[in-house]
Fold these 2 entries.
Entry 1:
Amino acid sequence: MINNNLTLQNVINHKHKYLLMKSLPILLLSVILGGNISAQITFAPEFGVNAGAYFAAKDGTNRSKISPGIRTGIKTDIPLFRRYHLLTGLLYVRNGYSTGQEAAAGGGSTDLSINTIELPLQFIYRSKGNAVAAPYCGIGPYLGFNAGGRAFIPGAIIYPGSGNFDSYRSLAVGSSAKDDIRMLDAGISITAGMKMINGIYISLLLQRGMVNLDPPGEYGAKTKSFGAGMNIGYFIHHKKVAKTEPTVKKQEM
């Protein structure tokens, strides 16, 4: 009876030890990574200039002229492993384009400014760099929500015989035939930049939309966005590089 109890107890102990040894590495890894990542996540206010255009797949030509704009918001840097990072955030982007869609209304082009809320998700590789800065590059998707905007029609004819007047109107955002632009935009972006040891960074950005922004009823046109920009930001609570002074080995007399 005693031997049977000892044998059963040994089996239970062995099973518990096996489960503990199996789960311990996973637990330790999650604690280490979780603590390491949470301790190194940094946030950066960012501001930049943006140049936007829109391309029509219907004829394969540029549908608009390059239009200047701004890009500002908060970026978040999340370390993954070694020199790989995840760069995301929440940005406000104002850009637009110039088109001749409403030439019948006034015989001229229409200038549109579009307000977009953008969520980028970029996978970044940052090199070791030197004592001043570290270069980096990355690629990833982005998701944009067009929140509205304004259309400017120079020299529009309000009604026959009224003469030419500059006309302004708000953009209609939606997916119906009466709307000007769809709400959802998504695509791919690539970036390259330089992060200084004091937390300041400068980056360049190129992105291309993959979603048709034309509402239905646009005679089969498929318009997609394009953007390029230059940004500057500052990572708060960045990891500082400790300066070490060279040690001189004393020669024995």
Entry 2:
Amino acid sequence: MEGRSLQDLLPVPDGMTAVDLPDGRRVFAPAGADPEAVQVHVAERETKR
């Protein structure tokens, strides 16, 4: 399985979409969500830690 990552192995849940973050991570968000808004939301939550 050379070159495969966990992201390649996890299916996107029904009703969700995959959003790639600038640092290479991927998150699942509700289908139709604005990818830029998801990225901002994740960044804001991480700065509150």
